[in-house]
Amino acid sequence: MWLLQLRWMAVLGQLLTVAIAWGLVDFGLPLFPLLALIGLTASTNVAYGIWLWRLRRMAPQEKPGSLPSRRSPLASSSHDTADHLASCLMLLDLCTLTAMLFFTGGATNPFALFFFVNLAVGGVILRPRWAWTLTALAVIGYTLLLRYYYPVEALTIRDSRLGGLIPTVGLFVAFATCATVVTFFVTQTAGELTRQQDRLRQAEEERLRHRQLEGLTTLAAGAAHELATPLSTIDVIVRELGRHLEECQTPASVKHDLKLIDGELESCRQILVRMRAAAGDQSGQSWDQTTVEDLIDATLEGVRDPHRVDVVDGPEAVEQQTLWLPQEAVAQAIRNLIHNGLDAGDADGRVQIATRLEGDVVSFEISDVGSGMSDEILHRIGEPFFTTKEPGRGMGLGLFLSRNVISRLGGQMEFDSHSGTGTTVTVKLPIAAQPPRN
């Protein structure tokens, strides 16, 4: 939109300048080619404005206060197209300016200084390679204008004390040097501003993500507090009932059911602890010194259908690598990924876990043989409450909480998936992590 407005300003400025030079000063300018060049700029700007208007109508609108969404493949394609289109328009404007100067005195025309305006604008809105291409073409165009142009009597420099070659070379060197300096500093400044903007956007996304995590942590802590009392009451009643039944003849099935209830109560307690740990509550889990092998064993303890999970044994150096981390929280995070892999395949589908050591990072690769994910789903993966599962089979929090646990440890999760070829999730954890100090 900024480029659109600047080009309209250029069109109006060129029309005004031509009108003054032709009507008031009577420089004897070739009116037709100048108006044709201005018309070319105006017509391309109209087409550019229509394209931008259609692009903005197609762009999805985000709700106020929502977490900024990751760029979709469609948005990325439109952004790249806009970059290339803006670059082509800037190149066209440079050629138009060169042609207008050709008909109005060439380098002797004071408006040749507007080359630097084009270079400054290009350095701000174009990528560096396009900005330097613009600079190279400007130098070539100015060099040609030093020798080839339609002279304008009022702009002709008379009584030059220097020969023709020396001022020509001097103007060329001066212009090339100024163009290079302007492009260098403008592109460097624009690049730093872009990087700063990216850092601010990432900080804002992180702030909103932390706010969501605080809400989830509060929810988990509240659930743990509210459910602790009824679970304790049920536990006391079950134990009292068990003692009473010991005094009389009781069927084995009843004793089995009481034992099952007691086991399920313990499972509920562990689930509440895991909820607090997965939501980022470090008080829910203590840090442990463990190994890669022990971490995988702890992960598999709570996996449903463990017979469908294949563990690829790594080298001894990898299996016995020492790690400092909240073991149950990390095990639950990896367990969520395993369950997602099991859900992605059919009833006989298998999930494979492999480990790898790369410098000071240990990687866990969880691969499934499911249907894979499209690029659009991959760009949204990990968002809270986003799920591709059927209603009732998931809330869309598993990956979100797993990513949070891994990122808090300084690690990261990477997804490699294509529709119809399954998915591989790589969890990378630093081995040099140390427990937090109180």
Fraction of residues in helices?
55-70%
Order of helices and strands: HHHHHHHEHEHEHEEHHEE
Find the count of extended strands (DSSP E, 2+ residues): 7
* Average predicted local confidence, pLDDT: 77
Task: Give the count of helical stretches.
Answer: 12
For the sheet with most strands, the description reads: 5 strands, mixed
What is the alpha-carbon Rg in Å?
34 Å
Low-confidence stretches: 61-74, 159-163
Please report which band the strand proportion falls in: under 5%, 5-15%, 15-25%, 25-35%, 35-45% or over 45%.
5-15%
Strand-pairing-aware structural class: alpha+beta
Q: Order of strands across the widest beta sheet?
A: 2-4-5-7-6
Apparent shape: elongated
The span between the termini is 52 Å
Describe this structure in words.
- The chain is of the alpha+beta class and 438 residues long.
- Among the domains are: 149 residues, no CATH class; 146 residues, Histidine kinase-like ATPase, C-terminal domain (Heat Shock Protein 90, 2-Layer Sandwich), CATH 3.30.565.
- 61% of the residues lie in helices and 10% in strands.
- It has twelve helices and seven strands.
- The protein has a five-stranded mixed β-sheet.
- The longest helix has 82 residues.
- It is elongated, with a radius of gyration of 34 Å.
- It starts with a helix and ends in an 8-residue tail after the last strand.
